[in-house]
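Fold Annotation — chain and its backbone
Encoding — discrete vocabulary of local shapes
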Amino acid sequence: MIKKKVLPGIDVFLNGEHSYLGGRKIALLSNYSATNYDLISSIDLLTNRPEFKISVLIAAEHGLWGHYQAGENVPVQIDRRTGLKIHSLYNQEDHSFQMVSEGIDERMRKFDISDSGKKINESVLEDIDIIIFDLQDVGTRIYTYISTMGYLMGSISGKDKRLIILDRPNPITGIHIEGPILKYPEFSSFVGFYSIPIRHGMTIGELSLMFNKELFQNKVNLSIVKNENWKREYWFDQTGLNWVNPSPNIPTLNTAIVYPGMVFLEGTNISEGRGTTTPFEIFGAPWIDGKAITDKLNGENLTGVIFRETLFIPSFSKYSGEKCSGSKLFITDRESFCPFKTSLHIISVIKELHPKNIIFHKEYFDMIAGNSEILTMITSGVKVNDIIESYITELSEFNSNCNQYFMY
């Protein structure tokens, strides 16, 4: 049920006054998912207005039009619609990153914990005065649009450049937070930029305020255009906005809801459902006993979720072309559902029932967890409630600290 028509930052920005932009050279960092209330892309809205002198487009992971899979190189190219150069901030080739032969999953894990290929070139910065940033985040620390913004802010801090953030709603609300706080800077990477929990409960504009105050001695000249009418308790389907995939494997709001937990399967040899029509909502492997896993998980009586045995064959990614047995998550109450806690139960149950089959990619798992303790506790057989108790104090401290950055 729609609670109130919410206008994202792009609508508010276009309805505002723009004389301060007068003749300034502007770069636009956006993608296909960034639209106004009427589903017109920010790219079209801003490049078609003569008062905005957009001189270069900047693409994050998944590319300008959102069609590159996770781990796929996004090349520097010319946009056929506007004729503008697209500078890539997920460019493996331009930074001499050595592509690995194991496949897209291994390439993603290796590239995403490296610093190369994610930062804006100085030559691009020299020719622009203002950068407009408009990307739809999904409310999870591991989702790389946050890191793209953080790296960009680091590149322009203390410089005579202006960054305008067109804010967007956090689609999984601004009131639910969950998971351990990343240990900065030891575990800072492209899949975890700063000391925030896995499910952070903030908008990307609010996060930019946090980064600017806490990270950069030389501050960024930062402006944020707020959403209109958004409230922290709103889920995305209560805003009146249409869901446009922010990336290829987040096709629905339901995917975004389970993502803060199910993404941890990327750090294992368990399929998280990539290569199917329901990524992150299912999991499995050829060696998993789907019925036993499902029965065991339902016996845990986890809040807000029911599991159902499933079979699937991924068309790409882990176990491509192989029949996988596993389970599907059905969210029965999204307000009480805890995605990270649920993922800990899933991994722990699979480890219990298939101890000789499960494999952890330690370096990557630790990076997305934001510390090395979570995996150590999992592999040592520590109970899920005790794992959660280990970080509950720091999560509470974050919850108190982040209020100073709230704009809604």
Remarks:
- The CA atoms of residues 261 and 343 lie 5 Å apart.
